[in-house]
Amino acid sequence: MMTVLITGASSGIGAGLAKAWADDGCKVIACGRDPQRLETLRQYSPHISVRAFDMTDRDACRLALQDCHPELVILCAGTCEYLDRGVIDAELVERVMATNVLGPVNCLAALQAQLMSGSRVVLVSSMAHWLHFPRAEAYGASKAALTWFANTLRLDWEPKGIAVTVVSPGFVDTPLTRKNDFPMPGQVSVDHAVRAIRQGLAKGKNHIAFPTGFSVLLRLLAGMPEFIQRVLLRRMVRP
C-alpha cells in the first residue's frame, strides 16, 4: 500500500487529492493548519490520518513529519495575497513568501531523510510565474521561486532516484480563488485539477500544467514582446 503525504489537505486541491488516493486504498497522511477541517477529512476514509501544524514553523514541521516515510509527497499548501495597486506591503510579501516558498522547503527538510529511491515529490506552483500579472508581485515571485527551487532540486535528487514534479495550475475553483475580485479565464473545478494531477503523475511527468487551453494561451503570451504582454495582461486581470 503506497503512502501519500499531502500538505494543504484542509480544503481545495489538497483535500480532493487526499480523497482520491484514499479511495484507491492508499495510506494518506493529510496535513494542514485547521484541525477541524482535517478531522472532517479523516472521517471520510479509514485510510486517512491527519497531522495539524504550521509549515512556516520549521520546528513544528520537523516534529509533525517524523516517521512518515511517504513514497509520494504532494506539497499543495499555499496562499495568495495581492498588493493594492503597487503599494508595497512588506508584511504581506513576507507572509506569502513564508507560506509558498519556505513552507515547502521546511517540509522537504523534515522529510528528506525518509525519502528513498522511487519516491516522488510534487510541488504545486502556478501559471502565474510565467508572466508578470498586475498586483501579483508577491504571489508570482513566490511561485517563480518555488518552481526554480523544484527544478534545481530535481537535478540533485534524480541521481538518488527521487523524482521531482512541478504542477502549474491555472485558476481552480477553491476557497482561495473565490476571494479574487477579477475575472478568472479558464477556471476549472477541483475535480478537474485532481484528475489532471493524477493523470500527469501516472505518466511520470516532471511538469503538469492545466487547463490545456489556458496554458497554451499564457505560453504564447510569454513569448510575445513585453509591451504587448503588458497591454493584454492588464485587460485580462483588470479588477
Give the neighbour order of strands across the main sheet.
3-2-1-4-5-6-7
Any idea what the shape is? globular
The number of helical elements comes to 8
Mean pLDDT across the residues is 91
Describe this structure in words.
By secondary structure, the chain is of the alpha/beta class. 44% of the residues lie in helices and 15% in strands. It has helices spanning 12-23, 35-42, 58-64, 90-111, 137-157, 190-202, 212-222, 226-236; strands spanning 3-7, 27-32, 48-52, 72-75, 120-124, 163-169, 207-210. The protein has a seven-stranded parallel sheet with strand order 3-2-1-4-5-6-7, sandwiched between helices. Strand 4 (72-75), helix 4 (90-111) and strand 5 form a beta-alpha-beta unit. Helix 1 (12-23) crosses helix 6 and helix 4 (90-111) runs parallel beside helix 5 (137-157). The radius of gyration is 17 Å and the shape is globular. The mean pLDDT is 91.
Note the main attributes of this structure:
single chain, 239 residues, alpha/beta, 7-stranded parallel sheet, 8 helices, 44% helix, globular
Question: Briefly, what is this?
Answer:
With 239 residues, this protein is of the alpha/beta class. It has helices at 12-23, 35-42, 58-64, 90-111, 137-157, 190-202, 212-222, 226-236; strands at residues 3-7, 27-32, 48-52, 72-75, 120-124, 163-169, 207-210. 44% of the residues lie in helices and 15% in strands.
Per-chain topology:
Elements: E1 3-7, H1 12-23, E2 27-32, H2 35-42, E3 48-52, H3 58-64, E4 72-75, H4 90-111, E5 120-124, H5 137-157, E6 163-169, H6 190-202, E7 207-210, H7 212-222, H8 226-236
